[in-house]
């Protein structure tokens, strides 16, 4: 069962119910006759819109007001063709499972009733049903989908594998969508508004430098880059990064070698030694601190076979 993360009891929505399962008349709500409830499920009924509360697990955040008005005008003229789906939560009280846009548009049209398919669903199934319906209708943007997956994991204690099975997706799809939530706000916004695609966003995830991220994001939007173009740009950046890393590693190795040589010469001549590498060749500097010290060093050099 889902955790009561949102802290919603029936009393928060309907004053006649308290959280202990009793109505204000003292009648037991928690013992709403099971048979009465079952008699009202798996059927299509015309319900009062005022008796349907929104789905508290609705994964969709943004509703296009223009499209909502168009749907409302269509419902006013032709009626609602496809019923919404609800679950019974009390005597003539229902909670929306799917069909948020249709319910909103019906209210907007000033229509008091709506056809609804009544199902028996528990809380964790309610989240899944809402998410599945929206995903199948392609009404959620990628960030909303990712947040829906996250809610299934956090609020219903699902594993990624369980989410994948529940939604008929590959495990890798769930993982990749959840990674989108790690994107910086500007990129998430571009993804939510459709300025870039999920493919663009996934390419940007691999870039650690936020300034480079912003630069490529701007190029993708302003120049209408394809996913392949941004992937190629990221690949070139990665190659340059690897080349710089290899050069630095080589330089570090050379520096260590020169330091080792300097140490050996310092021990041999008992003086400070500096080895400096140039484009071609280099130079070795041996310090002396007096004329006698110079003679000593020269003598040692002369003795070298």
Structural description of this entry:
- The termini are far apart.
- This protein has a domain at 1-140: Conserved hypothetical protein from pyrococcus furiosus pfu- 392566-001, ParB domain.
- With 305 residues, it is α/β, with parallel strands linked by helices.
- Helix content is 51%, strand content 12%.
- It has twelve helices and seven strands.
- Helix 4 (123-136) packs antiparallel against helix 5 (142-155).
Provide a compact summary of the structure.
With 305 residues, this protein is of the alpha/beta class. It has helices at residues 34-38, 65-78, 100-108, 123-136, 142-155, 160-167, 171-179, 185-192, 198-205, 210-222, 227-269, 291-302; strands spanning 43-48, 52-53, 84-90, 93-98, 113-119, 273-277, 282-286.
């Amino acid at each position: 069962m889902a955790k009561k993360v949102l802290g919603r009891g029936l009393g928060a929505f309907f004053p006649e119910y308290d959280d202990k399962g009793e109505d204000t008349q003292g009648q037991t709500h928690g013992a709403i006759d099971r048979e009465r409830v079952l008699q009202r499920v798996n059927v299509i009924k015309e319900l009062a819109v005022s008796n349907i509360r929104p789905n508290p697990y609705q994964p969709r955040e943004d509703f296009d007001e223009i499209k909502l008005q168009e749907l409302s005008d269509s419902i006013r003229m032709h009626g609602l063709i496809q019923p919404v789906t609800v679950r019974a939560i009390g005597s003539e009280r229902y909670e929306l499972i799917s069909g948020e846009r249709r319910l909103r548009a019906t209210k907007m049209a000033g229509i008091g009733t709506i056809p609804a398919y009544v199902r028996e669903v528990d809380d964790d199934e309610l989240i899944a049903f809402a998410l599945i319906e929206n995903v199948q209708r392609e009404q959620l943007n990628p960030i909303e989908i990712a947040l829906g997956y996250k809610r299934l994991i956090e609020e219903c204690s699902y594993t990624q594998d369980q989410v994948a099975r529940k939604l008929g997706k590959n495990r890798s799809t769930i993982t990749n969508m959840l990674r989108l939530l790690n994107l910086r706000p500007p990129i998430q916004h571009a993804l939510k508004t459709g300025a870039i695609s999920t493919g663009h966003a996934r390419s940007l995830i691999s870039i650690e430098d936020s300034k480079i991220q912003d630069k490529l994001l701007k190029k993708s939007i302003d120049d209408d880059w394809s996913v392949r173009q941004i992937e190629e740009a990221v690949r070139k950046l990665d190659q340059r990064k690897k080349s710089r890393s290899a050069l630095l590693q080589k330089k570090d190795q050379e520096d260590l070698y020169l330091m080792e040589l300097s140490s050996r010469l310092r021990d041999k001549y008992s003086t400070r030694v500096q080895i400096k590498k140039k484009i071609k060749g280099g130079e070795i500097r041996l310090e002396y601190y007096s004329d006698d010290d110079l003679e000593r060093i020269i003598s040692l050099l002369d003795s070298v076979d």
